[in-house]
User: Fold these one by one.
Assistant:
Number 1:
Amino acid sequence: MYYADNGIFLSDKQLKLLNALYKSDLMLKEFEQKADLIYEDWLEVLHLEDYLQRFIEVTEQNDPMQTIFHLNSEGRAIIEAIKSRRRENLINRLLSIFAILISIATWIKQL
C-alpha cells in the first residue's frame, strides 16, 4: 500500500495503473502491455467503483476494447504528490549520507 495524499491509500495495482495513465491515455486493450497489468489485475482495479469514478475518466466507444481511460485532475494531483514525496525522500537520504560522510571524515581526521 502506498500513501498517496489526504488519507488516500493505493494498492500496487492501483498505483501502477495511475502511473501508466499519467504517462498517456490508454485503451482497454493496452492495459496489459503499457500498464504491466494482467487481465485479472486491471479488471479488479476497474471494478473498484469509487476508485474509478474518483481518479479516472472513461470515454466509451462502440467496441469495449477501444474504450479510452485517462486521469482526471484528482488522479493527476495524486501521482504528482507521490512523485514529489519520492523526490523529497531521495534528496533527504542523499543529504543524510553526505552528513554521515562528513562526520566520518572529521572523526578520521581527529585520529
Number 2:
Amino acid sequence: MSSSTGSSSSETDAAEQVSVEEQSSAVSAGQIVTWLLVSLLALGIIGYFTFDPDAFRQTVQEARPLLLATAVVMALSRIGFGGLRLSYVSQGRLDLASGTRGQLAWYFFANVTPTVIGGAPVATFYVARDGDIPVGESAALMFFCMLLNWFWFLVAIPLLVGAGFAVDLLPEAAGAWGFWTLLACLGALFLWGIAFTYFMLVRPRHLVGLVDWCLQWPLLRRFRDRGMREVRSYFRRAKRLGTQSVSFYGWGFLLTAMIWIARYAVIVFIVRSMYAADVLLLFLRSAATMLVGLLMVTPGGSGGLEGLYALFIGPLMPETLMAPTLFVWRLLDYYLFVALGAYLFLYQIQSPASSTASSPESKVPPSSEGQEPTQPQSG
C-alpha cells in the first residue's frame, strides 16, 4: 500500500512540474512584450495630445516626493497583504514567504493573461510546486482568495453606485449615457459576483460539471483526465468553506480589503504628489477604474486601463499631468509586477527541485488516492 502511495505521489510531483513548465511556455516573452508595447503606445497617444513640457516644468516644481514615496509603499504593500492572506487561508500549509511568492506569481499572471481570466487559475500550479502541496489543495486556496475578492466587490459596488448619485464619478462630458453605462457595467459585475459566490459556497458540485464541459473543448481535451481529477479534489475541499468560522472569513475579508484599498490609494498618492485634487473623488474614481477594468480582455488591461485613467482620473488634474501620472501608475501597478513576477517565476522554474519535494515520503498523498491532507482547524 505504501509503495503505491509513494508511486502515485511521485507521479503527482512530475505532473505538477510539467504543469508549471507548460504554463511558463504558454506565456511567451514575445506576448508579454507585445502587450507592454500596447500599453506604452496608449500612454504615448495620451501624452501626445495632453503633455505640455513648459507647463509640466512649472507644475513639477510643486511636487511632493514624500507622497510619491507613499504610493510606492502602497504598491509594494499589496504583495505583503496578499502573501499574508494566502498564508492565513492555508491555515499553516504555506508560510509567509511562500504566500508572498505565490501572491507575486498571481500578480504576474494576472498581468500577462486576459484580465477577465485573472492570474489565480494559472498561479495555482506555481503555488502547488513552490509550497510542495497537491494541485487540488492549491486550487482550493486560490479559489477561496478569489471568493474573498468577490466578497469585497459585492460590498464595494453598491457603495460606489450609491456614491455615484452624490458625487460625479464620471466627468460631465460623459453625460447621462456614460453614467448609465457605468452603472450597467457595475451591475453586471455585481450579478456575476453573486453567481460566483453562490456556486462556490452553496453549489460547488455545479462547478465540477462546468469544468467538465469546458475540458471537452478540442483545445483542452488532452487535460481532461488530470483536470477532472484535480477539480474533484477541489470539490471535496470546497465543501469545507461553509464550515469555517465567521472569524476566519472576517480576517480573510479584512486582508482582502487592505489589498484593494492599497491599490486604490496608489493613484490617490500619485496624483496628490503632483496636484491637490479632491481626495475622496480621487479614491472613488480610482475604485471605479479598477472595477470597470475587470471587464478588460487584454492582459493586464493593456490599452484599456490607460483609456479608463484618462476618462476617470484625467479631468481631476491639469491636462499636462495626465500622461506623467499615468506612466507612474502603470509603472507601479503593471510594469513592476511583470518584471518582479517574471524574475521570480523563471528563477523558480529553472532552479532544481528541493530534496523535500522530490521525496515521495515527504509529499502529502494526493486526493485522487482517496486521502486528503489534514489541516488544522480554524480558530
Number 3:
Amino acid sequence: MAGRIAAVADLCRAVDTALDVLVVRVAAEAAEEGWTTDLMREASAGYHARLQQALAGPRRPLDAAVPARG
C-alpha cells in the first residue's frame, strides 16, 4: 500500500507541475494580447488564484508528507 500511496503522490506532483506550466503559459499569452492581472481576475477568480499559486512556486503539502521517489 505504501508504494501505491507514493505513486499517487508522485502523480499529484506531476499534475500540479503540468497545471502550473499551463496556467503560466496562458497568462503569458494573455499578457501579449494586452490582458492585465486585473482583467484575468475579472474573467476568472479561480484561474487567477491558480496563477498566483503557480507563480509563488512549490507549496505542496504532499512534498513534506511523502518523500519523492527516484
